[in-house]
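Journal club prep — side note

Before the paper discussion, L.F. wants everyone to see what a predicted structure for a comparable chain looks like in C-alpha coordinate form. Sequence:
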Amino acid sequence: MDKLIDIKISDKVLSVDACYNFVLDQSCGGNVLFVGTVRDMNKGEVIKKLAFESYVEMAIKEMKKIAYSCLEKFDAKKIALHHRIGDVGLEEIAVIIAVSAKHRKAAFEACEFAIDELKKSVPIWKKEYLENGSYWVNARP
Protein backbone atom coordinates (compact mmCIF):
# COMPACT_ATOMS: atom_id res chain seq x y z
CA MET A 1 0.00 0.00 0.00
CA ASP A 2 2.94 2.37 0.62
CA LYS A 3 3.63 2.35 -3.13
CA LEU A 4 0.33 4.20 -3.53
CA ILE A 5 1.11 7.13 -1.22
CA ASP A 6 3.92 9.68 -1.12
CA ILE A 7 4.21 11.68 2.10
CA LYS A 8 6.79 14.40 2.58
CA ILE A 9 7.55 17.18 5.03
CA SER A 10 10.55 19.24 3.97
CA ASP A 11 12.36 22.50 4.49
CA LYS A 12 13.27 22.41 0.79
CA VAL A 13 11.27 23.70 -2.19
CA LEU A 14 8.40 21.36 -3.09
CA SER A 15 7.97 20.01 -6.61
CA VAL A 16 4.64 19.98 -8.42
CA ASP A 17 6.21 17.78 -11.11
CA ALA A 18 7.35 15.18 -8.55
CA CYS A 19 3.85 14.97 -7.06
CA TYR A 20 2.13 14.81 -10.43
CA ASN A 21 4.54 12.20 -11.78
CA PHE A 22 4.03 10.08 -8.66
CA VAL A 23 0.24 9.91 -9.03
CA LEU A 24 0.15 9.57 -12.82
CA ASP A 25 -1.25 6.16 -13.73
CA GLN A 26 -2.51 4.86 -17.06
CA SER A 27 -5.65 3.43 -15.42
CA CYS A 28 -6.71 6.90 -14.21
CA GLY A 29 -8.51 9.60 -16.14
CA GLY A 30 -8.70 12.07 -13.24
CA ASN A 31 -5.59 13.77 -11.88
CA VAL A 32 -6.10 16.65 -9.47
CA LEU A 33 -3.46 18.94 -7.99
CA PHE A 34 -3.92 21.40 -5.17
CA VAL A 35 -1.02 23.80 -4.75
CA GLY A 36 -1.15 26.13 -1.76
CA THR A 37 1.09 29.18 -2.05
CA VAL A 38 1.88 32.08 0.28
CA ARG A 39 -0.27 35.12 -0.51
CA ASP A 40 0.57 38.74 0.30
CA MET A 41 -2.51 39.69 2.35
CA ASN A 42 -4.63 38.20 5.12
CA LYS A 43 -7.45 40.00 6.92
CA GLY A 44 -6.26 43.34 5.51
CA GLU A 45 -2.69 42.87 6.75
CA VAL A 46 0.36 42.69 4.49
CA ILE A 47 2.19 39.39 4.83
CA LYS A 48 5.97 39.27 4.39
CA LYS A 49 6.40 35.49 4.75
CA LEU A 50 5.10 32.45 6.60
CA ALA A 51 6.95 30.05 8.84
CA PHE A 52 5.80 26.50 9.44
CA GLU A 53 6.76 24.27 12.34
CA SER A 54 5.79 20.66 12.83
CA TYR A 55 5.97 17.65 15.06
CA VAL A 56 7.27 15.79 12.00
CA GLU A 57 6.90 12.17 13.14
CA MET A 58 3.29 12.70 14.23
CA ALA A 59 2.53 14.80 11.15
CA ILE A 60 3.73 12.04 8.83
CA LYS A 61 1.65 9.49 10.74
CA GLU A 62 -1.47 11.68 10.41
CA MET A 63 -0.79 12.42 6.73
CA LYS A 64 -0.57 8.67 6.06
CA LYS A 65 -3.97 8.19 7.73
CA ILE A 66 -5.43 10.88 5.46
CA ALA A 67 -3.87 9.32 2.37
CA TYR A 68 -5.17 5.84 3.19
CA SER A 69 -8.63 7.30 3.85
CA CYS A 70 -8.57 8.87 0.38
CA LEU A 71 -7.65 5.57 -1.21
CA GLU A 72 -10.50 3.81 0.58
CA LYS A 73 -13.29 6.42 0.68
CA PHE A 74 -12.88 7.84 -2.81
CA ASP A 75 -11.34 4.90 -4.64
CA ALA A 76 -8.28 7.02 -5.39
CA LYS A 77 -5.41 5.17 -7.07
CA LYS A 78 -2.46 7.21 -5.73
CA ILE A 79 -1.96 10.27 -3.57
CA ALA A 80 0.93 12.58 -2.73
CA LEU A 81 0.83 14.93 0.29
CA HIS A 82 3.82 17.27 0.57
CA HIS A 83 4.18 20.15 3.05
CA ARG A 84 6.92 22.70 3.69
CA ILE A 85 8.35 23.62 7.04
CA GLY A 86 10.58 26.57 7.84
CA ASP A 87 10.32 29.97 6.21
CA VAL A 88 8.23 30.17 3.05
CA GLY A 89 8.20 33.38 1.02
CA LEU A 90 5.49 35.04 -1.06
CA GLU A 91 4.31 32.94 -4.01
CA GLU A 92 6.31 29.95 -2.77
CA ILE A 93 4.59 26.61 -2.39
CA ALA A 94 3.58 25.63 1.15
CA VAL A 95 1.59 22.49 0.35
CA ILE A 96 0.90 20.18 -2.59
CA ILE A 97 -1.75 17.50 -2.79
CA ALA A 98 -1.93 15.33 -5.89
CA VAL A 99 -4.54 12.62 -6.41
CA SER A 100 -5.27 10.22 -9.23
CA ALA A 101 -8.48 8.26 -9.65
CA LYS A 102 -10.32 6.49 -12.41
CA HIS A 103 -12.78 9.41 -12.68
CA ARG A 104 -12.42 13.17 -12.06
CA LYS A 105 -15.14 13.47 -9.42
CA ALA A 106 -13.41 10.99 -7.12
CA ALA A 107 -10.07 12.74 -7.65
CA PHE A 108 -11.56 16.17 -6.81
CA GLU A 109 -13.37 14.84 -3.74
CA ALA A 110 -10.29 13.04 -2.44
CA CYS A 111 -8.13 16.13 -2.94
CA GLU A 112 -10.60 18.38 -1.12
CA PHE A 113 -10.94 15.87 1.72
CA ALA A 114 -7.14 15.62 2.01
CA ILE A 115 -6.51 19.38 2.34
CA ASP A 116 -9.41 19.84 4.76
CA GLU A 117 -8.25 16.97 6.97
CA LEU A 118 -4.62 18.06 6.78
CA LYS A 119 -5.54 21.51 8.10
CA LYS A 120 -7.68 19.98 10.88
CA SER A 121 -5.57 17.16 12.21
CA VAL A 122 -1.92 17.35 11.16
CA PRO A 123 0.45 18.99 13.66
CA ILE A 124 1.84 21.67 11.36
CA TRP A 125 1.64 25.22 12.69
CA LYS A 126 1.74 28.45 10.69
CA LYS A 127 3.17 31.78 11.78
CA GLU A 128 2.45 34.90 9.72
CA TYR A 129 5.10 37.60 9.52
CA LEU A 130 3.51 41.01 8.94
CA GLU A 131 4.94 44.48 8.43
CA ASN A 132 4.29 45.25 12.10
CA GLY A 133 5.07 41.94 13.82
CA SER A 134 4.13 38.28 13.69
CA TYR A 135 1.60 35.87 15.17
CA TRP A 136 0.67 32.19 15.16
CA VAL A 137 -2.41 31.57 13.02
CA ASN A 138 -3.48 28.49 14.94
CA ALA A 139 -2.42 26.98 18.26
CA ARG A 140 1.25 27.50 18.98
CA PRO A 141 3.62 24.55 18.64
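L.F.'s comment for the group: The domain at 2-132 is CATH 3.90.1170.40 (Aldehyde Oxidoreductase; domain 3). Keep this in mind when we get to the figures.
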